Amino acid sequence: MNTDITASAKPEYPVIDRNPAFTKVVGNFNTLDYCRFITLTGVSVTVGYLSGIKPGIKGPSMVTGGLIGLMGGFMYAYQNSAGRLMGFFPNESEVARYQKRGFSS
């Protein structure tokens, strides 16, 4: 069974890196990725706090919601950044930046 995503879907945009490393993907986060990451975390903290019905459970519920939001926000930002590097999402700014630096895939 082939689990390579490029085998089942063809990128619609220029490919910068077919298989980007973790550090390259995180280093490629843009402002919108960070905004989504922070927003998802903040909303999850609020939802966690509000879902704590009893007064003694509001704090732990808020922390749990925040951790879930933190992980989910990071994964969402990572997915968008990796998708741009692999050519599955619009990536005009990345293409210009990497061509200026002289990197190739």
UniProtKB/TrEMBL annotation:
Domain NADH-ubiquinone oxidoreductase 21kDa subunit N-terminal: 11-89
Superkingdom classification of source: Eukaryota
Pfam families listed in its UniProt record: NADH-u_ox-rdase
InterPro entries: NADH-Q_oxidrdct_subunit, NADH-UbQ_OxRdtase_su21_N
Residue ranges of the TM segments: 34-53, 59-78
Keywords recorded for this protein, A-Z: Membrane, Transmembrane, Transmembrane helix
Name of this chain's protein: NADH-ubiquinone oxidoreductase 21kDa subunit N-terminal domain-containing protein
Organism whose genome encodes this protein: Salix purpurea (Purple osier willow)
Lineage of source species: Eukaryota, Viridiplantae, Streptophyta, Embryophyta, Tracheophyta
